[in-house]
Amino acid sequence: MNIYQDYIQEIEERKNQGLHPKPIDGAELLSEIIAQIKDVDNANREDSLKFFIYNTLPGTTSAAGEKAKFLKEIILGHSVVKEITPTFAFELLSHMKGGPSIEVLLDLALGFDAAIAQQAADVLKTQVFLYDADTDRLKEAFKAGNAFAKEIIESYAQAEFFTKLPEIAEEIKVVTYIAGEGDISTDLLSPGNQAHSRSDRELHGKCMITPQAQEEIQALQAKHPDASVMLIAEKGTMGVGSSRMSGVNNVALWTGKQASEYVPFVNIAPIVGGTNGISPIFLTTVDVTGGIGIDLKNWVKKVDTDGKPVLNENNEPILEQAYSVATGTVLTINTQTKKLYNGDQELIDISRSFTPQKKEFIRAGGSYAIVFGKKLQTFAAKVLDIEAPAVFAPSKEISNEGQGLTAVEKIFNKNAVGIAPGKVLHAGSDVRVEVNIVGSQDTTGLMTAQELESMAATVISPIVDGAYQSGCHTASVWDKKAQANIPKLMKFMNNFGLITARDPKGVYHSMTDVIHKVLNDITIDEWAIIIGGDSHTRMSKGVAFGADSGTVALALATGEASMPIPESVKVTFKGDMKGYMDFRDVVHATQAQMLKQFNGENVFQGRIIEVHIGTLTADQAFTFTDWTAEMKAKASICISEDDTLIESLEIAKGRIQIMIDKGMDNDRQVLQGLINKADKRITEIKSGEKPALTPDANAKYYAEVVVDLDLIAEPMIADPDVNNKDVSKRYTHDTIRPLSFYGGEKKVDLGFIGSCMVHKGDMKILAQMLKNVEAQTGKVEFNAPLVVAPPTYNIVDELKAEGDWEVLQRYSGFEFDDNAPKGAARTEYENMLYLERPGCNLCMGNQEKAAKGDTVMATSTRLFQGRVVEDAEGKKGESLLSSTPVVVLSTILGRTPTIEEYTAAVDGINLTKFAPSNKQLVM
């Protein structure tokens, strides 16, 4: 059976799932399709034409290369296909977005046939995804006097690829659809347990919300054909959590419009809204697709005569509905007045959704086109030796005389591209910055690869210091889905120039370390900017931003990112941490005290948390920065003391060296380069030439939070509050409760220690607690299963060297075996200790899960509905989040411990301690 027949068989199988043919990305299949098109008597010719025209992926896929080559043959008359005229062939090339299509267009534009050259030049004027090899060809032809090269470059200088696009509509009609009450996690839009299908856009689209919701959306579209469906988070924030790109892709698939009639299932222009706005990373992804995100503010705090919030019996602000967005409500967005209307009634100002930059993204069909377009215009103006005309909206630049800089403002100014020398920018400014470190993870990496192909990128930008492709999200189970996807991903990323967790050549041992932990180690400069394809890209060195797979692709391809400089919230500490408390409790207490201090307003949301935590090394401080994703912060940054930072950099150097020793470095010696940079940074700190980063004494913050350690008297637990009468209060991460709330009576069905929120110290705490329990009771008996997934192999190796792993082995009933990894997800658990493979495990929820309806006590970060545990008939699954000692004791007891049981169990154990510095941390 040939490859075409295999494809036809796959099509028949997909029909049973209600799916269309899968888009073609491989050269071998498309070559066979082209051969059948050329054979006028071939029985498959008609179908082959449809597949070639409408079902081939563009960009730099190998299929795109074959398609571009065949279209060139048709244009030159070397092949004649009556259904594809030369004019139509040019149209098809115009929809292929760079790569082979640009090479073909340049061949034709710089060729000898003037008529063909003119047509090619006209198409090239509309293209923006050109790279150095392409622009170099144009520049050389221009210098040689080629008239068409001159014409193209002059068009680029005027940015006609943008100015000739249609203006955005003045009025956009929408019909509302309430996707849920409260914060809407992207897990609702793109469930983690369906991560394997994300690169198959149509198949993955079937998992958005529910089949019933999909039918309801289609019914609204049928009833209101002139309106776009706007997905809404009622009384909450839209798009919290991870997997933004696949979430936005799904929303666009069901509610947006097709980007090109010749590219299937790639939709753009989704419209989303939330009572409390849109999660920052999700909103960036909406921009990538040329969509609109609206902060609806349709529920407001009730205030008294003095203007103060009226509180309910739980001391929470009472909300009143300002206007209705109930499902089926028809509203109008006016892009000129920047207002939202219901008929003639003005509802709210939505100017933040229609800044000049956002309007450009909408007009161009996405932010990528603007990023590449600006670079193309700059290139053309330089070749012509003219000043680039002011076509694009000028970047917003805010410079406040006499005002100092926060730490993050300093980083942005250091890494900024294209600002006037000596100019200092403050929060609110739009900045293009160079990116130092980039991370891609495995369940979104396939989409990142697709994005790189679609923007015609073939090699990592030389200005990126280091980039890593992880294997952590698929570490738990090496099933058929993982076997089909992950090697292909690793090969692509390794060829692109990333350090990869798996070696495509099989030389070094596969490493499934959690992506954030690796990025935390390979970040060797606290002045760095990090972009990572995971919401928990929050480093304890530098400033890191979790990003959608497309923004990751853009950072890999260009070494740049564009964003406003965010406002910062300063967090400092006072008092003393009690000896029986763990630092995880300080993390949760920070959130609880902040909410109380600001009457329920989350001042962290959408801002940078500047945390003055200088006495903790990078491993320990990471526990705080990692959690800031759940605080809804845009990012976080640690202010570290010189000695502590040096210690952290030495630890990072050691771990990078281990990666080198394993054979993970590449031809560019990226990892060795990071060690060299770390050495240089350490020398700068020790000599006093450039001390550790600190903010200016006169920096301005949106708010300042002081965490009182004296008030933290018992372990703190983040509770999903699954039975709260107010649906909007469930699964928010904002319900932080003391251990005593549960009275030592809440049943715990399973415990989980692992993922990114734990470090080596947590594993040592676990080992010591087990020894303590045995010493106190004569044995260790689990009344609930305890699943342990160390974050990295380095930690396992260090525990083995220090004797702690042997302790864990002694009490375990299962230990991972890399030589025989699990081929299927665990569905049942016994009351024992499971030592699982390093990686995300239960926190990701795409492979392993707790049993339906379980109450889980976890060190994880995720408590979203259905993520760690799904609901059972008549019982909601719930994932409570706490410190390692609380999890251990809960599984031994099978319930939450009392404070007395807890303090006895941790007696003498070296928990993760924190003491605020006595030093002045500002300049």
Features:
923 residues, six-stranded parallel beta sheet, lyase, Aconitase/IPM_isomerase, alpha/beta, seven-stranded mixed beta sheet, iron-sulfur, metal-binding, aconitate hydratase activity, 16% strand, 31 helices
Backbone CA Rg: 28 Å
Task: Outline the biggest β-sheet.
Answer: 7 strands, mixed
- How many DSSP H or I helices? 31
Topology, number of strands: 33
Task: Report the sheet-strand fraction.
Answer: 15-25%
* Proportion in helices: 25-40%
What's the shape? globular
Which runs of at least 5 residues are low in confidence (pLDDT < 50)? none
Quickly give the structural class. alpha/beta
- Mean of all residue-level pLDDT scores: 93
Straight-line N-to-C gap: 72 Å
Q: Reading side by side through the largest sheet, how are the strands ordered?
A: 8-7-3-1-11-12-13
Domain Aconitase B swivel: 178-405
InterPro entries: Acnase/IPM_dHydase_lsu_aba_1/3, Acoase/IPM_deHydtase_lsu_aba, Aconitase/3IPM_dehydase_swvl, Aconitase/IPM_isomerase, Aconitase_4Fe-4S_dom, Aconitase_B_HEAT-like_dom, Aconitase_B_HEAT-like_dom_sf, Aconitase_B_swivel
EC number: 4.2.1.3, 4.2.1.99
Domain Aconitase/3-isopropylmalate dehydratase large subunit alpha/beta/alpha: 410-894
